[in-house]
């Protein structure tokens, strides 16, 4: 039976990417050697790294605009730290939209003062704060574009007078944006880009080099840029599979094409949530994420029936995060509209049974 | 034609590991889902992580001795930093045996004083210093067990009065040692353990928690231990493939069995280097590494002939590092004795041609 993988990440990847990645583990491009056995300094791997970096900038429309793309290790969690080490001299402003924003704030606090420009904590983060000020004397402004746990998403980004840093781990490459508004964009690969194990960091070079501290080598964006994202041995499998996924996206027509699909999927699930009296959406409507739809089943007595039906339909990974409860349908780029249709049918069938 | 992969790392892996890893990228254990698509919090992946951690301790003989095994990201280069952040309060002693030891020293210097207990720099690191003192008032002593670039290896470790930290990236799981002499052992996976993208860290828990600084979460061994090596999304493919490689080693008979093989391979290449007048070993004999044999071709005029012969024999990755020149035969666990035989035949044939 076909599985419908709604996991919040690691998550569904395009089938053709899985096929090619699997083949490369046995034999990379008929070289007689496995992708994971060759030197990362070999031409074959250097080409892969360069292609992945170029594709990232191309898809984001950032070629020739002073940006560099890096594929690093350590997840977005390491970026919480690297951003502060590379940019924080006196004070930074953070938008608090939930769990991951909080983690970013806590890491940065080790190094200097952090000011929360706004927070939606009082409503368990079911909305995105708006209309806040970003003080222009600060070093940078940090926000989280999409909040997987709460199912909220920033629709309009502020015009920041200081470098804007954005954790786009869970919605990068899913929608068109003016990416040149950002000083740094970072994203763990394991949602829209590839397997866990690498993190894309897109940096505008001219915002670097302004702090007085000595930055440890592995934490220093300039060192990674200077060595072509190969300061040390890169995570070759994760980078290769990310390159394949970016190639897949480019062949589909890029971000604009996938955005159309993502919007169709989101409209389908949200209209079911709104029309079906058994379910209730968690996030306020205007801030609903097109990547993660969070909702609860109003009648707890139907829980067992619903979950049996989900299982029978081959639906996987729909459990909500413990801080919200209920369900979360993660609909990343590689999840097909068909999978969302199957889920919506189950929800609708539950209504007819109830 | 069969390739003989002498790469210094990433390097040759067992064929059965490549087969299983490739299959898991398509479908993990007939689950209908790819290894890289499932949640890292799923039972399937938690079991993989726990098995990998347990196998590491079992193979090292460290079960029940107060150690924890972690699979982290960022390579040994990140460990240079983490060791200092977690252990360095006032001063540490480092043994300087080459390029990687130097990198470890430079990262630690950001945080406090570092004292070189001994160095073989004056001889371009062609030997391992011996007979040095380790001051007992220091926080820890750091050494590098095997120096890939120079082809030297520590044969007898000192009895350190303070926690001994060892970078075993290039010879872990290759020879029997009393691993309980060490406070921390770390190793990038890409030599004897798996693909690039994860780093094994084995920590004796009771040496932690003694520094006064606030350690960033991702740099804190205690945080990683507390969350079962899943503080954030782990590099699932690299951890799974490492688990497969450790399983392969266990089935072979563990470290003692592979050590016998490794010694055969080393004896074979070094006796050719010593007997064949065309070649000269770089490292002093008593400190020769069983993992990386470094040597030069004395007659530069034969270089082209030799390299053509290597290519024709399917030998890959034999170039020496630029700081030593010449050749380097890396003979990690998964490289077969047959591959070394092929290399030695080519060397011997060159002599008969010359």
Question: How is this structure best described in words?
Answer:
The structure is a homodimer of 354-residue chains. Chain A has 354 residues and is an alpha/beta fold. The first copy, chain A, folds into two domains: 238 residues, Aspartate Aminotransferase, domain 2, CATH 3.40.640.10; 100 residues, Aspartate Aminotransferase, domain 1 (Alpha-Beta Complex). In chain A, 36% of the residues lie in helices and 17% in strands. Chain A has nine helices and 14 strands. In chain A, the strands form four sheets. A seven-stranded mixed beta sheet of chain A has the order 2-10-9-8-5-3-4, with helices on both faces. In chain A, strands 11-12-14 form a three-stranded antiparallel beta sheet, with helices on one face. In chain A, α7 packs parallel to α9 and α8 runs antiparallel to α9. Chain A is globular, with a radius of gyration of 21 Å. The two termini of chain A are 26 Å apart.
Short summary:
Chain A is an alpha/beta fold and 354 residues long.
Strand percentage of chain A: 15-25%
CATH class of the largest domain in chain A: Alpha Beta
Number of strands of chain A: 14
Count of the domains of chain A: 2
Uncertain residue ranges of chain A: none
Oligomer class: homodimer
For CATH, the homologous superfamily of the largest domain in chain A is named as Type I PLP-dependent aspartate aminotransferase-like (Major domain)
- Biggest interchain interface, per-side counts: A-B, 62 and 61 residues
N to C succession of SSEs of chain A: EHHEHEHEEEEEEEHHHEEHEEH
Count of alpha and pi helical runs of chain A: 9
> What strand order characterises the main sheet of chain A?
2-10-9-8-5-3-4
Major β-sheet of chain A, in short? 7 strands, mixed
Instruction: Bin the helical content of chain A.
Output: 25-40%
In round numbers, the mean pLDDT of chain A is 97
Distance from first to last alpha carbon of chain A: 26 Å
Any idea what the shape of chain A is? globular
């Amino acid at each position: 039976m076909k599985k419908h993988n709604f996991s919040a990440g690691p998550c569904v990847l395009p089938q053709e990417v899985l096929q090619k990645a699997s083949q490369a583990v046995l034999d990379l491009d008929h070289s007689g050697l496995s992708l994971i056995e060759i030197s990362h300094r070999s031409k074959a791997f250097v080409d892969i790294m360069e292609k992945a970096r170029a594709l990232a900038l191309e898809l984001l429309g950032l070629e020739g605009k002073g940006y560099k793309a890096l594929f690093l290790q350590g997840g977005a969690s390491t970026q919480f730290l690297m951003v502060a080490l590379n940019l924080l001299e006196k004070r930074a402003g953070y938008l608090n939209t939930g769990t991951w924003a909080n983690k970013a704030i806590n890491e940065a606090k080790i190094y200097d003062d952090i000011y929360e420009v706004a927070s939606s904590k009082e409503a368990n983060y079911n909305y995105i704060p708006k209309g806040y000020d970003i003080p222009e004397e600060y070093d940078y402004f940090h926000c989280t574009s999409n909040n997987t746990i709460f199912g909220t998403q920033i629709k309009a980004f502020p015009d920041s007078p200081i470098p804007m840093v954005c954790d786009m781990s869970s919605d990068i490459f899913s929608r068109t944006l003016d990416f040149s508004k950002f000083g740094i964009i970072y994203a763990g690969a394991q949602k829209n880009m590839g397997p866990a194990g690498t993190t894309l960091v897109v940096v505008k070079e001219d915002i670097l080099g302004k702090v007085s501290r000595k930055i440890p080598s592995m934490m220093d964006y300039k060192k990674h840029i200077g060595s072509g994202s190969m300061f040390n041995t890169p995570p070759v499998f994760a980078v290769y599979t990310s390159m394949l996924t970016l190639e897949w996206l480019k062949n589909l027509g890029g971000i604009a094409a996938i955005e159309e699909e993502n919007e169709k999927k989101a409209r389908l699930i949200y209209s079911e949530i709104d029309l079906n009296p058994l379910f209730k959406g968690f996030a306020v409507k205007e801030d609903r994420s097109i990547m993660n739809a969070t909702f609860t089943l109003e009648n707890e007595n139907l829980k067992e029936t619903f979950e049996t039906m989900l299982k029978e339909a081959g639906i996987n990974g729909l459990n909500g995060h413990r801080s919200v409860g209920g369900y979360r349908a993660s609909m990343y780029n590689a999840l097909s509209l068909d999978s969302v249709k199957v889920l919506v049918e189950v929800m609708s069938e539950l209504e007819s049974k109830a």
